[in-house]
Amino acid sequence: MNYASQVVGVSIAKGPTIMLASGRWFDLLDPHGSDFAIEDVAHGLSLVCRYAGQCHSYFSVAEHSLLVSSVAETFKYEALLHDAAEAFIGDITRPLKQLLPEYKRIEALVEDAVIERFEMNPDYRSIVKAADLRVLAAEQAQIMPRGCADWAAEAGIEPADVVVRSLSPSEAEREFLDQYRLLKSLR
């Protein structure tokens, strides 16, 4: 590993890896073999801003995940973790993601590793997606420019009854971890 790689917290000795805030290494091409914990997920998600930062106030993926978990009728644990991969690969806007097929492949690998690591029920996707869309509509109506959430009414999606609080990263991280521990204890 060369000095420049060490300075930016990136290593390509094994594969393209990043150093996590915990000091663990995460290999983007071997996420199953990477050492990561829920604290890494919570920390990363609390610092990633939704909507490429183009919202009226800071709004983290961790807070979004808390909202989706609160709205999901079942699979609340999986709903909390549904965007956990973004702790390692960031939150890419949907239009840009469509232009990056390799990113989508890597995202799927990381998502699979998260599902395995946290023993998520793989049947969660359709239920959590419905909750995610309802939360998305509510978020956009609250923190995005006027008209951004018009798609929801056209698609027949009723916005969730949630309030975006714009938690600070430390608040979002703490609440995410608290909710994770609670939901894990109920399994």
Please tag this protein with its features.
disordered N terminus, globular, 187 residues, 4% strand, mainly alpha, three-stranded antiparallel β-sheet, Hypothetical protein af1432
Task: Give the secondary structure arrangement, pairings included.
Blueprint: H1 3-7, E1 10-11, E2 17-19, E3 25-27, H2 38-47, H3 61-71, H4 76-81, H5 86-89, H6 94-98, H7 101-117, H8 125-143, H9 150-155, H10 169-185
Antiparallel strand pairs: 1-2, 2-3
Q: What does this molecule look like?
A:
The structure is a single chain. It contains 10 helices and 3 strands. With 187 residues, it is mainly alpha-helical. The chain has a single domain, classed as Hypothetical protein af1432. It has a 3-stranded antiparallel beta sheet. A hairpin with a 5-residue loop joins strand 1 and strand 2. The chain is globular, with a radius of gyration of 17 Å.
Helix-strand topology string: HEEEHHHHHHHHH
Our count of domains comes out at 1
Tally of alpha and pi helices: 10
Task: State the major sheet.
Answer: 3 strands, antiparallel
Mean pLDDT: 92
- CATH top-level class: Mainly Alpha
Shape: globular
Rg: 17 Å
Proportion of residues in β-strands = under 5%
CATH topology: Hypothetical protein af1432
- The stretches of 5 or more residues where confidence is low (pLDDT under 50) are 1-7
- Terminal CA distance reads 42 Å
Quickly give the CATH architecture. Answer: Orthogonal Bundle
* Estimated helix fraction: 40-55%
Structural class by secondary-structure content: mainly alpha
Number of strands: 3
